[in-house]
Amino acid sequence: MGPETRDELLDAAERYARTVPIPVDFERIEWECSDRAVRRAGACLYDHRTEQVTIRLTWEAYRSFGWDEFTGTIRHELVHAWEFQRFSESGHGRRFKAKARELDAPRHCRSFADARLRLVCSSCDWEARRFRASEAVKRPAERRCGSCGSRYRVEHVESGRRWRTHAGYLVARRKLDGDW
Ligand SMILES: [Zn+2]
Ligand SMILES: [Zn+2]
Q1: Which of 68, 102, 136 is the last residue of a domain?
Q2: Which residues does 43 contact at the CB level (< 8 Å), separation at least 6?
Q3: How many angstroms is it from 110 CA to the middle of ligand 1?
Q4: What does the pLDDT read at residue 1?
Q5: Ligand nearest to the CA of 106
Q6: Given 23, 57, 117, 120, which residue has the most CB atoms within 10 angstroms?
Q7: How far, in Å, from the CA of 131 to the mean position of ligand 2?
Q8: Residue 78 shares a structural domain with residue 136
Q9: CB 136 within 8 A of CB 150
């Protein structure tokens, strides 16, 4: 089970971050949880005067992505932290991309709008986003809504294709092919 409160999320994020093989100085990184309805899953801020890095995680993004997906956001923000600490600047340029690839971190700051896949409950208003073909996406019949326990459907956001079973997933995947 993933963290269930904002404090747990910050603790888990910091603990997880220390297992990521990237040379950053954790003594100079602050962790924050944002409740604002921002579209970005995370942000990394830098104070040039104090050289303090702040990694801000978005609670709603964590709730909607789930912990496994969210660790990608943490790795992404760590690459920003690393660039800030080492070069006093950070962006999404070539250096960032190379480091992100090393850590299997997403190259773009993830936003809700970017999510390729949406899980939608059949009986309540629960909705979750996924970037990758996780088990929840591939085998929806074996899982349930995170809120009421009913079944849910998966939607491929760009094409609008939807499915509720593993067989349906395989069909959609084949039909979408390069447009996945
Ligand atoms: Zn970024
Ligand atoms: Zn539900």
Answers
A1: 102
A2: 34, 55, 56, 77, 109
A3: 8
A4: 67
A5: 1
A6: 57
A7: 20
A8: no
A9: no
The predicted structure's pLDDT at residue 113: 62
For residue 9, the model assigns a pLDDT of 97
Phi, psi of 160, deg, nearest 5: 80, 0
Quick one: 43 and 12 in the same domain?
A: yes
Low-confidence ranges of the chain (pLDDT < 50): none
Q: Give the ligand whose atoms come closest to the C-alpha of residue 44.
A: 1
Ligand nearest to the CA of residue 127, numbered in listed order: 2
pLDDT single digits (tens) 128-166: 888 889 999 999 999 999 889 999 999 998 888 999 999
pLDDT value of position 99:
96
| Ligand closest in space to the Cα of 109 | 1
Backbone angles phi, psi at 85, to 5 degrees: -65, -35
